[in-house]
Design goal:
The chain is mostly helical. It has one domain: Tetratricopeptide repeat domain (Serine Threonine Protein Phosphatase 5, Tetratricopeptide repeat, Alpha Horseshoe). It contains 11 helices and no strands. The longest helix has 21 residues. The chain is globular, with a radius of gyration of 17 Å.
């Protein structure tokens, strides 16, 4: 799997969603019972920012794999402490994919399978766990990039279906358009890929997510340059 291609990040709706959950918990339960939930939004945000830093700022593959693995463990513990919440499952998935990209060896496919299962579980709980369209977009990208049977579980039709749902949920979104552009580039649709990648590059930057947004837009620009130069683009 190509490095820095599989894992992606959602929009800035994590804060408002988490805040709404806290407000509901405080209204529905005694203060003593609401207290354990208070750290959940901050823990999710640490995972999100940790992923962005490891994925885009750590250049040494060994260090990237090590840090991604550690953060994935933190996400797993958070999921165990908060059953029924989609956010820790989704971030564990993206961190496992970051680790898979960094390791780039026989263990990568197993990590990708774990990530797929986590993303599917997160999607059932809350499709907007990473922001509008982003869980669908990452699943679509994963099905597009992993080898097909018998070696892997890649599946072009599943990829296309998830990516279409992502765009329906977030037509101007950075992740939805980037991964759609990547998919179309992989399948030789230069015109469609160019349009999607240009939309991704034009997506507004989100306050607090500058590292991830810059990294994703840089990937979009690099892929667009390859597409326009007529260079093959495959996972």
């Amino acid at each position: 799997m190509a490095r820095k291609r599989i894992s992606g990040r959602g929009g800035s709706s994590l804060g408002p969603v988490a805040a709404a959950v806290i407000a509901a918990a405080l209204a529905a339960a005694p203060a003593a019972r609401a207290a354990p939930q208070d750290g959940f939004p901050a823990a999710v945000e640490r995972l999100a920012h940790g992923w962005a830093r490891v994925n885009y700022e750590v250049s040494d593959p060994k260090a990237e794999a090590r840090e991604a693995e550690q953060l994935a463990r933190e996400a797993r513990r958070l999921a165990q402490d908060h059953p029924g919440r989609a956010e820790p499952l989704a971030w564990e998935a993206l961190l496992l994919l970051c680790e898979a990209d960094a390791r780039h060896n026989l263990s990568s496919l197993g990590l990708a399978r774990q990530a797929r299962d986590l993303l599917e579980a997160a999607l059932k709980l809350d499709a907007a766990a990473l922001g509008p369209g982003s869980v669908e977009a990452n699943l679509g990208a994963l099905y597009d990039q992993v080898p097909g049977a018998p070696l892997g579980f890649g599946h072009a039709r599943k990829a296309e279906r998830h990516l279409r749902k992502a765009l329906a949920e977030s037509p101007d979104g950075l992740d939805a358009n980037y991964f759609q552009g990547q998919f179309l580039a992989h399948h030789g649709d230069v015109r469609g890929a160019r349009a999607a990648l240009e939309r991704a590059m034009a997506a507004p930057s989100r306050r607090g997510w500058e590292v991830a947004d810059r990294g994703r837009k840089r990937e979009a620009a690099q892929l667009l340059a390859k597409v326009m130069a007529g260079k093959p683009s495959r996972p």
